[in-house]
Write a structure and sequence with these properties.
The relative contact order is 0.10. This protein has 5 helices and 6 strands; from the N terminus they run H-H-H-E-E-E-H-E-E-E-H. By secondary structure, the chain is of the alpha+beta class. Helix 1 runs antiparallel to helix 2 and helix 2 runs parallel beside helix 5. Pfam families: GAF_2. Keywords: Coiled coil.
Amino acid sequence: MQKDDDRLTSRGEEFLQVFKKGAEFTQDLMRENERLRYRLLELEKTPSPGGGDPPAQEVRRLSERIADLEAEKQEILDRIRQVEEENHDFAARYLEIEDENNNLANLYIASYQLHSTLDFCEVLQIITEIIINLIGAEEFAILLLDEKSDELQAVATEGVEREQIPVVRLGKGVIGQVAQSGENHFVSDVDDYQRDFLSPMVCIPLKIKEHVIGVLAIYKLLVQKKEFAPVDYELFTLLAGHAATAIFSSRLYSDSERKLSTIQGFIDLLTK
């Protein structure tokens, strides 16, 4: 990413130099053009020593020179216009990369927060905030897979009640298929999408390597979010991996804490 920034900065400086030189050269051409036109006008007004018209050869030479300068000026103007268009593309690309850098930096901070706690509920809350702030989702659910029953159940939601999200069998419907295949699902047209709890707008598998532990199902975007940008797909992939690891670790920790608490309870009971 740093190489892209350096290359774009260098390209931008090159554009500015070309633009500056082109503008200076165009001004010189225009001054020379004006001088020659004035000279031509003088020749046309000043009679020749013999009392006739000015020498045709001199007039023709000046006219040809003026035509050449006009052509050069037009060429420079075309080049300046081309540089302006390229500079516009450069500026747009620069802003795009700046947005990507900001999003990746935010994701880095968010992933650090994810792995800073082993509390299951806190992990789910952090994931929810990331999805809202970085992805721009308004309604979504996090479903986890129960490997004993092969069912996916919602453990956290935003914008909808958790009871509204149905239990989904592995391999059934969009959610079940994503959990089974481990492949992302995106609708082709965000604007035409109608909310369907069994068929979300976006469904991302939460997986550790190839092991799927659940899915993220998005049903509605925030008002200001009209479509997904290319960087969003990278964020989905990165988020899914970090979220899955954090969820898996926090659940293991919670289970071990419960088992230790149960064992400690038996020990206390036996030693009394």
